[in-house]
TrEMBL record:
Gene3D superfamilies: 3.30.530.20. It comes from Aggregatimonas sangjinii. SUPFAM superfamilies: Bet v1-like. This is SRPBCC family protein. It comes from the Bacteria. InterPro entries: START-like_dom_sf.
Length: 165
């Protein structure tokens, strides 16, 4: 069983409250997800985020294939972090921690995603060929959309790295 981790950091020139209000609103996830993912919220995004919240999406990770993705918001510390975990969907495990902290000139957003692919060795073979590339594209798109919406902090570079265990 191989586990993977994606670690991303991006800084934007907004207050911690503005960043929190945007990132903790599940409806905004569609705005920062590439159109070709066919991302649609089916239910659960009609109220402010809370621990125990279940959100259902439809996503098309590959052409001609779509699936439901059910997430539970398991932890929330208002203004600072939240955690979502996949309950049903394309991954064998998906645990996504979102952190927001104030820095000089804005906020630093940090994502740590621990995930496992289904299908054993086939999933492991698909990781470098498909999954890792797709996650890189999703985070590059998200970075660009956040820059378009909020700007960037000069001198602060983004970080995107993968590890496997």
């Amino acid at each position: 069983m191989k586990l993977y981790q994606l670690h991303a950091i991006q800084s934007i020139p907004v207050s911690q409250q503005v960043a929190w209000d945007f990132l903790s609103n599940p409806a905004n996830l569609a705005n920062i997800t590439p159109d070709d993912m066919g991302f649609t919220i089916l239910s659960g995004a009609d109220r402010p985020m809370f621990a125990g919240q279940i959100i259902q999406y439809k996503v098309s990770p590959f052409p001609f294939y779509s699936t439901k993705w059910v997430s539970e918001i398991t932890h929330v510390k208002e203004g600072e972090y939240f955690v979502d975990e996949q309950r049903y969907g394309p991954y064998a495990l998906w645990h996504h921690k979102h952190f927001i902290k104030a820095i000089d000139g804005g906020v630093e957003m940090e994502d740590i995603i621990d995930y496992k692919l289904p299908l054993g060795i086939l999933g492991q073979l698909a990781h470098p060929l498909l999954v890792k590339n797709q996650l890189e594209q999703i985070f590059a798109f998200r970075e660009q959309k956040l820059i378009e919406l909020f700007g960037t902090i000069p001198g602060r570079e983004k970080i995107l790295k993968f590890k496997s265990f």
